[in-house]
Amino acid sequence: MRETQQDQLVMAEEQMQQLRSKATELLLRDEWKEAVQAYSHFISLCQDQVSKTPEDPQHLLKLHKSLCLALSNRAEARSRLRDFAEALRDCDQALKIESTHFKTLLCKGKILLNLSRYSMALECFKTVQLDPQANGSSVSLNGYLQKCKKLELMSRTGAFDLSEWVVNGFRGKPLEPAEYIGAVQIKKSEIRGRGLFATKNIDAGTLVLVTKAVATERGILPDQNLDENAQLVMWKNFTEKVIDSGAKCSRTRDLIGTLSSGEDEDELEVPEINLFKPESEHIGGYPNEKLDVNRILSILDVNSLIEDAISSKVLGKNSDYYGVGLWVLASFINHSCVPNARRLHVGDYLIVHASRDVKAGEEITFAYFDVLSPLDKRNEMCKTWGFRCDCKRCKFEEDLYSRQDIREIEMGLERGVDAGAAVYRLEEGMRRWTVREREKGYLRASFWDACCQAYSPEKLARGWGRRIPPMDSVVDSIVEAVGSDERVLKMMVEKLKKGSGGVVEMERALKLGRGVYGKVVKKQAMKTLLGLGIL
Ligand SMILES: C[S@@+](CC[C@H](N)C(=O)[O-])C[C@H]1O[C@@H](n2cnc3c(N)ncnc32)[C@H](O)[C@@H]1O
């Protein structure tokens, strides 16, 4: 018996009804992957029906409504799976059917917020607000609107305040930062390949950029040397996450494709800074067909950063903590042993600020490893990064380290010679070798451990104080060379706490603090952090 057209329609309707119920159930049970599959099936059936019933406007309207809702729900499920690109496509398709569809606009706004496209998200939430349905959910909608406005303002101005989180000992949930790009551009670097450059004068503490990770992986490694296996597992998870992010989003893939894989770095194209602004849709022009897994792995080798758990350094907590991540724009920042910027990790965000005053045109650099260490040690650390440092301090010290006197000071320290005597010898040497003021900072930073001990109250009391330069000028020259550092700051604060210093010294310590933590920590919070609140 031949089925009539009507019978076929009824059967299709029944099948769609069943699929819709199943998909809704899966969505309610948070089974996102299965929900996407069920909705995909439903959507293709629905689209099929739309193409078959062009004459019945009532039925067509009903089908379009079902299609719109299914696309919206699939977008929700996809966004939960962090497949934002496909989720956005679903939203746009649904909005083509019904341009003010409440649920879709809300979903699209949340996805855009997640992608740091604040002004577009704001537009979505504003349109949602006009819908009469919005009254019922005004509390959460208002929350999104306020959050979006705040983030949009932050991303334009870089006005962050992390004071509360810092004062609470880096505990609790920090304020969510917005992505931000300050006065910088990417150019060819004299150090190697491309680098990030200041387009204006930037003073110490000012934000340079805030950027969200493509992916991160974190864990506690009780003993980093012994637990190589755990590190390998983390690295594997991390690379999988990066590959997955690239597979899900062509923009992410394109951006990863701009990064160096370590080969022919000086020949690489110099991308426009605007490409890295989250609101810019497509970048194109990069040979991404070459972005296979092997290339991604090489890119990760060159560009992944280990998270600096500031709380572990400052508060002595979480010292077992290990985190690795890829932050695309920050990957253009070269290393220098005379860095002028520092990084701070807040959640998945990397915040870079100037650690000393930077002049327009100067390259922004941060330290990939501890630069308050001597040349040999820095060379070793550089090796693990797979390059030979081409910064001006290394060049200067390489020439100087051929001198026997420097070697003797080093050997003396290894033998346990008094740190005050070593610093005295270094200062005498620098006078004889007519080392310029700026370069004195380089060498003092190289002999930081000795300087630090030499300026301890006990050593000073034993008479070294009169024979070596005043601590303030040594600190100034080190900070001028390598920017602020928490150990230098600590030395200054200890001096202040001993009562040797007034308002001027306090201002100096606060300026150093700004260089270490950035202006994201406001003055009062900085005083509390430095333990100077009572002064
Ligand atoms: C994260 S990338 C920095 C950006 C890179 N220059 C580019 O063009 O994409 C790290 C790579 O930059 C180069 N590099 C960074 N700092 C350097 C330095 N101080 N000396 C020599 N090469 C450096 C090395 O090749 C390193 O593997």
From TrEMBL:
Coiled coil: 2-29
Cited Pfam families: SET (PF00856)
SMART domains hit by this protein: SET, TPR
Domain SET: 182-369
Keywords: Coiled coil
CDD domains: SET_SMYD (cd20071)
Protein name: SET domain-containing protein
Organism: Prunus yedoensis var. nudiflora
